Amino acid sequence: MALAVEMITFDCDDPDGLAQWWAQAVDGEVTPFAPGEFVVVIRPDGPRLGFQRVPDPTPGKNRVHLDFTAGDMEAEVARLVGLGATETGRNNFGDEFRWVTLADPAGNAFCVAEG
């Protein structure tokens, strides 16, 4: 029996606000299972994103992060920054693979690569 990725869950202090931001970023729909405590973003494809209130979100660098691809990486990065993301770095493996590291409004890292 194979496992299926159902949801990726973020610990945070404002699940409603962070879910709203990610819904805009990934063209998803916000579904508040327990408003203010546990909110889910349902995406057109791929796993759902969950946001749960915790008393003390983990400080420091994320141990897990989301990676996205975009046909026009620069346009997508500009769109996400316009929504409130912060660009934190640019990386590459030679000329063949480039990506931009960003942080959502709560500081969670994610990457956008050319795709």
TrEMBL record:
Domain VOC: 4-115
Pfam families noted in UniProt: Glyoxalase_6
InterPro entries named among the record's database cross-references: Glyas_Bleomycin-R_OHBP_Dase (IPR029068), Glyoxalase_6 (IPR041581), VOC_core (IPR037523)
Gene3D superfamilies: 2,3-Dihydroxybiphenyl 1,2-Dioxygenase, domain 1 (3.10.180.10)
Domain of life: Bacteria
Record protein name field: VOC family protein
Species of provenance: [Mycobacterium] manitobense
Organism placement in taxonomy: Bacteria, Bacillati, Actinomycetota, Actinomycetes, Mycobacteriales
